[in-house]
């Protein structure tokens, strides 16, 4: 089969002929229809990261197949009898190896796609959709709560805006450009900000933080009493600082990082989460924001566009 594999020279991936993988007993073999591009894939190249149970990462050897998520059709069911049968359209989060014509996926991380959901839409759900949904749950009951989402124009952010509104929250989206902020309002955000400033009232019950650095420092200054900060990204890769003594003004505040793979492995509810999201998309209640659909042979260009930070939502690569 054909697959993108890692290489030490830019653009750090090359198309190659490789053996079709043999699934483990708890894995189904999926013929891949589409994949979407994630920042984690971009920043981990050329040594693509294998995400381990504790959330840590381990560099894979050169020649490994990158790719976290996919949509496609099951062509061989799991030998242990779990999961969807042959012919089932699915979305899945194998955590590695999806940028190929075929990929093995643990059945606990596969979900059936509703007939009304396209392959391209399905490919955006396993990482961005599940991260948004499961990270928002850390904030508890959101009805009537004030939620702010930084990096809100990214793949996770555009889902989080919509899901928080569906849960009844008052939602503020943070994005730098006027055009992106307007797009967030059209997705349902109640208001937008160009940045999360440390100056201002402690008004946010839940802060979904994707930027790190000064933005994360500001989150500690703006979170409400007994509020929650969930860090699901660190796009700035900058150090974090905040004034001494700030801790005394944050009674009951909870801070925690969110990592999708260990969270999914904690309750083995990936199938349930994916199928819930698929149902919301099919019903028209959730809109995957797809900036572009490209042929998968254009993966290097897609990675460059993601690096340039010009993408609203997701880029999807069509495999077949």
- Compute the separation of the termini in Å: 13 Å
What proportion strand?
25-35%
Which class of the largest domain in CATH terms?
Alpha Beta
* Total count of domains: 2
Shape annotation: globular
Q: Helix fraction?
A: 25-40%
**Named CATH topology of the largest domain:** Quinone Oxidoreductase, Chain A, domain 1
Strand and helix layout:
Blueprint: E1 2-6, E2 13-17, E3 27-36, H1 39-44, E4 49-51, E5 57-59, E6 70-76, E7 89-92, E8 102-106, E9 110-112, H2 119-122, H3 125-136, E10 146-149, H4 155-166, E11 170-174, H5 178-187, E12 191-193, E13 204-209, H6 213-222, E14 223-231, E15 254-257, H7 260-267, H8 270-283, E16 290-295, H9 299-307, E17 314-318
Parallel strand pairs: 10-11, 10-13, 11-12, 13-14, 14-15, 16-17
Antiparallel strand pairs: 1-2, 3-6, 3-8, 3-17, 4-5, 6-7, 7-9
Helix pairs in contact: 3-4, 3-8
Task: Briefly say what this structure is.
With about 325 residues, the chain is of the alpha/beta class.
Explain what you see:
- By secondary structure, this protein is α/β, with parallel strands linked by helices.
- It is 27% helix and 27% strand.
- It is built from nine helices and 17 strands.
- The strands form four sheets. Strands 3, 6, 7, 8, 9, 16 and 17 form a seven-stranded mixed beta sheet that branches. The chain has a six-stranded parallel beta sheet with strand order 12-11-10-13-14-15, sandwiched between helices.
- Helix 3 packs across helix 4 (155-166) and helix 3 (125-136) packs across helix 8 (270-283).
- The protein is globular.
- The model has no long low-confidence stretch (mean pLDDT 93).
């Amino acid at each position: 089969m054909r697959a993108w594999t890692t290489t030490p020279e830019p653009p750090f991936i090359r198309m190659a002929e490789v053996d079709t993988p043999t699934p483990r007993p708890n894995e189904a073999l999926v013929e891949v229809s589409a994949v979407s591009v994630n920042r984690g894939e971009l920043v981990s190249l050329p040594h693509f990261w294998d995400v381990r149970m504790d959330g840590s990462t381990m560099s894979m050897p050169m020649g490994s197949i990158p790719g976290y998520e996919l949509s496609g059709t099951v062509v061989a069911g799991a030998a242990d009898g779990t999961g969807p049968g042959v012919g089932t359209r699915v979305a899945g989060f194998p955590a590695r190896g999806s940028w190929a014509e075929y990929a093995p996926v643990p059945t606990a991380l596969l979900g059936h796609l509703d007939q009304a959901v396209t392959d391209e839409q399905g490919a955006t759900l396993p990482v961005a959709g599940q991260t948004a949904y499961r990270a928002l749950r850390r904030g508890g009951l959101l009805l009537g709560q004030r939620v702010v989402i930084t990096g809100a124009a990214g793949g996770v952010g555009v889902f989080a805006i919509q899901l928080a509104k569906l849960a009844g929250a008052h939602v503020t989206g943070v994005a730098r450009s006027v055009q992106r902020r307007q797009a967030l309002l059209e997705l349902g955000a109640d208001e937008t900000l160009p940045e999360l400033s440390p100056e201002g009232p402690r008004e946010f019950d839940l802060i979904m933080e994707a930027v790190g650095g000064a933005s994360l420092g500001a989150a500690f200054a703006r979170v409400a009493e007994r509020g929650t900060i969930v860090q699901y990204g660190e796009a700035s890769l900058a150090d974090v600082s905040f004034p001494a003594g700030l801790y005394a003004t944050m009674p009951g505040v909870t801070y925690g990082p969110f990592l999708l793979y260990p969270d999914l492995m904690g309750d083995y509810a990936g199938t349930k989460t994916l199928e819930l999201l698929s149902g919301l998309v099919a019903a028209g209640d959730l809109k995957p924001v797809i900036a572009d659909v490209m042929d998968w042979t254009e993966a290097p260009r897609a990675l460059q566009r993601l690096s340039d930070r010009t993408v609203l939502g997701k880029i999807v690569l069509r495999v077949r």
